[in-house]
Each structure stands twice: as structure tokens, then as C-alpha cells.
């Protein structure tokens, strides 16, 4: 389990994004249950696909 988490523990950019996301979530006027409706899921899927292509290129 620690080998799975180790890369994330050293990723400062990920830490910044998580903290920024939590901070911004405090100022959002809608409830947490409505958060999935606020996410543009087709864009997220596209970004995930691009990330997979980039990772496959450098693997």
C-alpha cells in the first residue's frame, strides 16, 4: 500500500491542487451533494484520455 501512495506523497503540485480545491470549496454556494453536477464530465474524460496518451508515450 505504501508503494502505491509514495509517488503522491512527494508530489507538491498535487498537494497544491488539493489544498486549493478544498479552499475554493469553502466559498462555493452550492451543497457538496450537488458537486457532481458542477463538473463538466466530458471535459474530464477528455483530459484523462490525453493524460493516458502522454503517459503511454513516455512509458
Q: Care to describe what's here?
A:
Keywords: Membrane, Transmembrane, Transmembrane helix. With 59 residues, the chain is mainly α. It is built from four helices and no strands. The protein has one domain (2-58). It has helices spanning 2-9, 12-25, 35-38, 41-58.
- CA distance, first residue to last residue: 22 Å
Query: Quick one: how many beta strands?
Result: 0
**Which strand-content bin applies to the residues?**
under 5%
Unreliably modeled segments: none
Oligomer status? single chain
Shape designation = extended
Helix fraction, binned, reads over 70%
What is the total domain count?
A: 1
Sheet having the most strands: none
Please tell me how large the radius of gyration is.
15 Å
**Helical stretch count?**
4
User: What is the structural class?
Assistant: mainly alpha
H and E order = HHHH
Mean pLDDT: 86
Protein name: Membrane protein
Transmembrane segments: 12-32, 38-56
Organism: Candidatus Erwinia dacicola
Keywords: Membrane, Transmembrane, Transmembrane helix
Amino acid at each position: 500500500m505504501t508503494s502505491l501512495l509514495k509517488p503522491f506523497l512527494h508530489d507538491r503540485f498535487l498537494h497544491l491542487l488539493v489544498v486549493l480545491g478544498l479552499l475554493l470549496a469553502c466559498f462555493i454556494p452550492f451543497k457538496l451533494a450537488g458537486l457532481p453536477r458542477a463538473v463538466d464530465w466530458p471535459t474530464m474524460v477528455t483530459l484523462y484520455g490525453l493524460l493516458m496518451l502522454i503517459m503511454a508515450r513516455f512509458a
